Amino acid sequence: MFSGDTTMMVRTLFAKLFACIFLGLALAIVFSLLNTVVNGLFNHDNVMQIFLSSINTGIIALAVFELAFVINKEYSGDASHGDNVVATLRRTIPGFIGTVCVALSLEGLIMVIKYSQLELAGNLYYPVAIICATAFLLAALALFLHLTRDQADGADIEATGTVYR
């Protein structure tokens, strides 16, 4: 129905649009983070609570920025990486999952610190569940990379010059 050039132009347009939306969202989150820190310091709030909250917000901003970066890199411009879906997933998924795992791990550790300061030891099940889910997510990523290494070896070498094993 559409020619290849039209399809590529629409794909690039939407990729740029979504990348700009997510970059704007990441920027708004960073401004919210700075506003929270400045207001908390001026209002003489608990400094530890301010920084724990700001770390959480900063990690969310980083994950949204990473998503915008991946969208812009993988879906904009020409299809120089080819149509190998497995190779595309092997390039993009590890970075994003890594960022999400860091965010989840920090969130779990922040919750452990918060609950221990507030003497709410009974609530430690939640951060333990978050950390276990993070470990499961990393194991699933490792399994995905292991199971797809044979299908993507040639495409990885062509696209990046390196083989991910």
Please give a structural write-up:
This protein is mainly alpha-helical and about 160 residues long. The protein folds into two domains: about 1-75; about 80-165. Helix content is about 80%, strand content about 0%. The protein has five helices and no strands. Helix 1 runs antiparallel to helix 2, helix 2 packs antiparallel against helix 3 and helix 3 (about 85-115) packs antiparallel against helix 4. It is flat, with a radius of gyration of 20 Å.
DSSP helix fraction = over 70%
Structural class: mainly alpha
Order of SSEs, N→C?
A: HHHHH
Number of helices: 5
* Computed Rg: 20 Å
Describe the largest sheet: none
The average pLDDT value, as a whole number, equals 81
Specify the overall morphology: flat
Q: Which regions have little confidence, pLDDT < 50, spanning 5+ residues?
A: none
- How far from one another are the termini? 40 Å
Strand-residue proportion: under 5%
Total beta-strand segments: 0
Q: Count up the domains.
A: 2
Q: Topology of this structure?
A:
Elements: H1 4-42, H2 47-75, H3 85-117, H4 125-147, H5 149-160
Helix pairs in contact: 1-2, 2-3, 3-4, 3-5
Features:
single chain, 165 residues, mainly alpha, 5 helices, 82% helix
